[in-house]
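Hi D.,

Good news: the full-assembly prediction came through. Inputs first.
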Amino acid sequence: MSEPYLRPLPAKSPGTEPFWEAAAEHRLVIPKCQNCGDWNWIPYPGCRTCLSEDQVWTPASGYGTLMTWSIVSRGPPGFPSPYVTALVELDERPRSMVMLGNIVDTPHEDLKVGMRMQVVFEDIADEDISIWRFKAA
Amino acid sequence: MAFPSRKAAVVGVYLTEQGRGLPRTAWSLELEAIKGALDDAGLRPDQVDGLIPMAYVTPLNLHMAWTEQLGGKPITYLDVGSGAGAVAKAAAAIDAGLCKVCVIYFGNANNGNGPGAQKRHDKAPRVDDWDYMVHGAYMSVWYAMWTRAYMHQFNVRQEDLAEYSVIARYHATLNPASIMGKRGEITVDDVMNSRPIADPLHLLECPLDNDGGYAIVVAAEDIARDCKKKPIWVLGGAEATYTDSYRTITSPWISNEGAAVRRVGEMAFGNSGVTHDDIDVAGLYDCFPVTVARDLEELGFCKLGEGADYIKAGHLRLGGKMPSNTDGGLLSHSHNGNPSGMHTIEVVKQLRGECGERQVPDAKIGLTLAQGWAVHGLAGVAIMAAD
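Then the structure:
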């Protein structure tokens, strides 16, 4: 039997349901402004570019490049040691979006600034949620 | 309208004991600090009419509870902010007639920032959807990622950044109140061989995580002239926020992310009429060595990518061009949860000439930089001077 998952999990707060429904199907959706066409991460009530609230959860490519990372030896309770936390800049434009997440299934020695990454999802055992991770594309 | 230079002064400062696991409450530490800072100034609690807790999220009833605790009269100026920025805002509010005596305060007990302070749960706790703790990105992890990106972009050696840890510890050895000073000086090798925390960072590149309280009293010119200690005049300052509390990161991260610090630095040098060469002593936010390197760059003491060289050249060390964090800073003196006012307190003591073995000779003008939450997400600068 595997260890229970004891790391903090998102609350699935009201308004974010489409994101978590897509995540459960291992698809990344991000709010895209219907007024100016810009993407917004993290999701805000209004578009950062034009402040329109007319935003639609839209499939994103799920690909990006590795900006930076840390291999963490000293984590909070519930985290395996070591784990890798990273910042990945998604391919979508014009404004860049940087996502925070853990890197999985990628040897630490392969990590390089600028390398291609893809978003994957992990179904959390005994919980009603799937969390995004990154791995080498 | 110009910033009201020399219309208000820091007249009182106080640090409680700083240490791990103090048998105190946050409130008790804050009360001791407020009473201590008022006593340092020779002022009474019922003279306080301005309050700035060092908190980013402060319910209004916190201000109201302190209004009642202080027992005197209505509080007419309420604010939140970062230490140095709060000093600048208090001075501006005083000049505008909104208050006469403003107290900036913070206390923390048994509520650490680090992973050791996180509770173990029987079931995964639920947090805000986009919370960084979902991904284990506590403070040292963020700064580890920042350090890696910085070293990559500017071809900086980690050993050169680590020189900052060495300087901070040296200063702490001259500060009897510091937590780490008693352990003695350290070398770059000691830093690089200390326990790995979040690669590339080691233990001695990370801040302390302890309890403690502090308070700063800013008063109007007429009151300041009659206080017990010599007034330390507020010449200028500013505060700015830029990114959303570690939940968003811009690209490029380096340079752009420092927009808050760059902006407040430009404003403070502009509204104080002081130049970089005028600064005798500084308090630069120093939660990690890379933070100090970036502070120096964004404030214009050196060019982008040259912060580590500036540190390595010894300019921040006592005896150097601009001694900084002479109390030992957040790595070797105290990081009490929200230490954004600690740098201001040390610079005030320097400008008063109260620093004993670690005194910067003839220190007349000082600069302090506070940061909070996001790397440069909330920044404040105050430039202050003795008479």
